[in-house]
């Protein structure tokens, strides 16, 4: 029997004590989050969609605004997509909002909610983790949630040094152990306790082992090397650069609206790239720089520069629209572009003049916002 198998077996053999210690800690120490304090299937679903790849602190104000505007499945199902995207603006990964909207419409047509993880897994935008979370929390289904937090906890509890190429493969390997450990008396609180433990105690760097309620079950705590687990291969970062333009005319700014079929940002507005505006990026980059930003998206590190220009090129691409400055608050802008636009306007940089010469006349082929 290997050390890994032995540690797993010992953990499973003591699972009743493990479950009790974990649950007692969670009920005494959990954060008072709004979807926990006033639970409902709808609030659980919305919170789980918002929390995908997003931190709790970021989600809290969005959740409050969403619930005020769209308090239940029926309201969400009846809402226009423009409102859904506007409420989601700034959270990123907008396919989550569209899938949540589709889910609400499907549920409204069905007239009932699934009660098992398998049933939830069939709905738009719901994967194994979200299905298990919703079914266990809202309906008591004994289904284990396995995300990055849970993988980290289980790898450390069992001191499993298996090397994984990514989190998805690690989740598949640890799913059986997670399922064996689920508390049958309260699977919802058990899953939330595991999430809470990974988010607040068993964190990636400098875990708070002395404060851990299940330290006595942890092989890594005994060995003193929890930060070495799980063994995930480092993701290679790819660097990219983007040149964007700021173009004003008569109290309006030029934006690019992504088409409805766009994979990530369908129907959302952004500042156009030089090529979208029909301009040469190299020439635009030589003009007045009014903002520079660096951001990370998945494995990419993107450096974006925004330059002032007088007008779009002779042959701009599709999707360009003029939007009145006073209407910017009513359209859906992607989160970074909302911040950049506000910063440029507040700093009074938007009127700087760049390549093109002359006052910008209305450009043919462009629609007005």
Structure, described:
This protein folds into two domains: 3-232, Hypothetical protein, domain 2 (Endonuclease III, domain 1, Orthogonal Bundle), CATH 1.10.340; 238-368, Nucleoside Triphosphate Pyrophosphohydrolase (Alpha-Beta Complex), CATH 3.90.79. Strands 4, 5, 6, 9 and 10 form a five-stranded mixed sheet that branches. The radius of gyration is 25 Å and the shape is globular. It is of the alpha/beta class and 369 residues long. The chain starts with a helix and ends with a strand. The chain contains 16 helices and ten strands. It has helices spanning 3-13, 15-29, 34-37, 41-51, 56-69, 73-78, 81-88, 95-110, 117-120, 128-139, 148-158, 167-181, 187-200, 219-223, 281-285, 335-347, and strands at 163-164, 231-232, 238-246, 248-249, 252-257, 269-270, 289-297, 300-308, 320-324, 367-368. Helix 2 crosses helix 13.
Quick one: CATH class of the largest domain?
Mainly Alpha
Tally of DSSP helical segments: 16
CATH topology label of the largest domain: Endonuclease III, domain 1
Give the helices and strands as they follow along the chain: HHHHHHHHHHHEHHHEEEEEHEEEHE
How far the N terminus sits from the C terminus, by CA atoms, comes to 68 Å
Largest sheet: 5 strands, mixed
The coarse overall form would be: globular
- Classify the secondary structure makeup into a structural class: alpha/beta
What would you report as the Rg, rounded to the nearest angstrom?
A: 25 Å
Tally of DSSP β-strands: 10
Low-confidence stretches: 352-365
Q: What is the percentage of strand-forming residues?
A: 5-15%
CATH architect. name of the largest domain: Orthogonal Bundle
Number of domains: 2
The percentage helix is: 40-55%
CATH superfamily of the largest domain: Hypothetical protein, domain 2
Whole-number mean pLDDT? 90
């Amino acid at each position: 029997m290997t050390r890994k198998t032995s540690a797993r077996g010992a953990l499973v053999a003591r699972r009743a004590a493990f479950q009790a210690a974990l649950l007692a800690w969670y009920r005494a120490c959990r954060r008072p989050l709004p979807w926990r304090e006033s639970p409902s299937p709808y609030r659980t679903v919305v919170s789980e969609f918002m929390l995908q790849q997003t931190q709790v602190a970021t989600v809290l104000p969005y959740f409050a605004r969403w619930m005020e505007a769209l308090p239940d499945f029926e309201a969400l199902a009846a809402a226009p997509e423009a409102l859904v995207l506007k409420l989601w603006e700034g959270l990123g990964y907008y396919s989550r909002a569209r899938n949540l909207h589709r889910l609400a419409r499907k549920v409204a047509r069905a007239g009932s909610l699934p009660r098992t993880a398998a049933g939830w897994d069939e709905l738009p935008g719901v994967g194994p983790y979200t299905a298990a979370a919703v079914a266990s929390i809202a309906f008591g289904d004994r289904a284990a949630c396995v995300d990055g937090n849970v993988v980290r906890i289980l790898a450390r509890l069992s001191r499993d040094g298996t090397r994984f190429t990514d989190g998805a493969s690690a989740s598949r390997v640890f799913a059986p152990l997670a399922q064996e450990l689920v508390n049958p008396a309260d699977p919802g609180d058990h899953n939330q306790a595991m999430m809470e433990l990974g988010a607040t105690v068993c964190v990636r760097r400098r875990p708070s082992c002395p404060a851990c309620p299940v330290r006595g079950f942890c092989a890594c705590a005994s060995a003193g090397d929890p930060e070495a687990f799980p063994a995930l291969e480092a993701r290679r970062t790819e660097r990219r650069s983007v040149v964007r333009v700021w173009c004003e005319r008569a109290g309006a700014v030029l934006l690019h609206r992504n088409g409805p079929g766009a994979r990530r940002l369908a129907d959302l507005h952004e500042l156009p790239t030089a090529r979208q505006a029909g301009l040469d990026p190299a020439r635009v980059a030589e003009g007045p720089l009014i903002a520079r930003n660096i951001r990370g998206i998945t494995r990419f590190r993107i450096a974006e520069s925004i330059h002032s220009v007088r007008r779009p090129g002779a042959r701009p691409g599709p999707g360009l629209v003029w939007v009145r400055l006073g209407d910017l608050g009513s359209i859906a802008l992607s989160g970074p572009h909302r911040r950049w636009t506000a910063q440029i306007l507040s700093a009074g940089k938007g009127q700087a003049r760049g390549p093109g010469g002359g006052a910008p006349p209305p450009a043919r082929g462009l629609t007005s916002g």
